[in-house]
Amino acid sequence: MCGIVGYIGVNDTKDVLLTGLEKLEYRGYDSAGIATLNQEGVHLVKVNGRIAELREKIDPTIRATIGIGHTRWATHGKPSVSNSHPHQSVSGRFTLVHNGVIENYDEIREHYLNHVTLKSETDTEIIVQLIEVLFDQTQDVLAAFSQAMELLTGSYAIALLDQENPDLIYVAKNKSPLLVGLGENFNLVTSDAIATLKETDTYLEIEDQEIVLVERNQVMIQTLNGTVVERDPYVVEIDAGETEKGTYDHFMLKEIDQQPLMIRKIIQEYQDHTGKIKLDDHIREAMAEADRIYMIAAGTSYHAGLIGKQIIEKIAHIPVEVHIASEFSYQMPLLSEKPFFIYISQSGETADSRAVLVQTKALGHPALTLTNVSGSTLSREADFTLLLHAGPEIAVASTKAYTAQIAVLAILSIDVANQLGLPLDFDPLKELAVAASVMESLIDQKDMFKGMATDLFQTTRNAFFIGRNLDFSVAQEAALKLKEISYIQAEGFAGGELKHGTIALIEKGTPVIALSTQENVNLLIRGNIQEVLARGAKTAMISMSGLEKEHDTFVIPQVHPLLTPLVSVVPMQLLAYYAALQRGCDVDKPRNLAKSVTVE
Ligand code: M6R
Q1: C-alpha 25 – ligand 1 centre gap (Å)
Q2: Does the N terminus or the C terminus of the chain have fewer Cβ atoms within 10 A?
Q3: pTM of the entire structure?
């Protein structure tokens, strides 16, 4: 979490910093600040609010060609001006922004900084104060910076300004993402290339425990002990327009709408010229050799894993366990003899998932990452990567990444089934294309779901989504979507489980939304709806054509039974979107959240 931008060039830096930070707000938006440096010294502006407020507070007449900026998701210390970044050393010589968590900050404070009066409650401030203390001993900034990095444990992406040197930004990283952008007469640093695509499409990766010296016309990477590292830059293939809202009011709605097109793109990306599925041979072979697959993920990606499990088990006949990353790390189950790990992460940066990847790599188990971000940490560190091809997902609430993850997992399972010689009784790519068309037809009926959201959620404090089989997993995703953006307390429940306790919460008017897309449980889930109706619930039934009954609220056109989540989730996403909108919530930037969760 937190976003960093730094710029050093010949033009004024404010606009690059502010525009970049606006694009990084998905990483956190509790508070923000920038520091620019010119011949008069460092100009520091911080707000306990968003980038729009920061923009207003900045004096447009102050010009500088070097600067750093930060948008914060609070970990240590509440959102406030004093806790927001950049932080300065006591003398004011050093100014620093940081993304990550310093685990040994108490130790460092006691050991090195007991004479320093700290101005904030953050773990970040100790870094800049430590650098100054070490500099006072050596009078060598680079040596102090490197030494400080060696002393830190935890995660960090750091950019540092030295008031005495307007020609250099000191940069370092460990576990948290940070890139260097390369330009003509300028260079920059950024947490994510999408923030600075307007400036450049050429970037240099920074590895963990490296230091980078960023000047206007030169960038030097070195290890903590001073060995110079040569690395080729790469070109980012994202159209800057993809990171704009365009005619939409919210990224979330744009991203919901993009799903049919995205599914078609995924089909295209993963088929060869004969129309057959084509994946990396090594992935197929490694997976086909496994006696058990372990999927590791968080949030919506975890929910996609639950669907992926059903698809893989049914198509490729390999047993699958799906685990919440933050639990797996600290309570690893007994593993099978030949496990294969699949990490599912839209951002590819989720710290909880990465912690597991580090552990399973150390155990020597093969790992595949399914991610939307090529070059992301989880992608680089796994043996294999499959890209989601969903295009940048900016809204905090994940929508298109979920359906992309399911589609790619379906393709993967079919590829493995082919490898294992397992027969298929359907044309998978054709069925995915059908699902894309059905998604389109649902998206065209937005007004229907808008009305439904008004009816169900306008005043309620809680809501239940129920389903059985695959619909249960979609119900869990539906509940997450609703709660994270509308703040309505919502639960996704297995229809049959309600009567074992939770039905006690149903009272007059409680919204219960049921999904019925699976033939073998159609009658059972309808029975569950009767049970809650009898207790006064306000119900809605969304069923699949062929299973519908009179008075169902909405009937989804038929798709292959294993692919129903791709389509049944769309009404759920739209219901959440309209509920949040109608309740006046900040749809794209819900409170307390951030898009990329880089702390454990
Ligand atoms: O980038 P990841 O897919 O690893 O992110 C995992 C979760 O943080 C994410 O899905 C989160 O639950 C979303 N905000 C849900 O909409």
Answers
A1: 15
A2: C
A3: 0.88
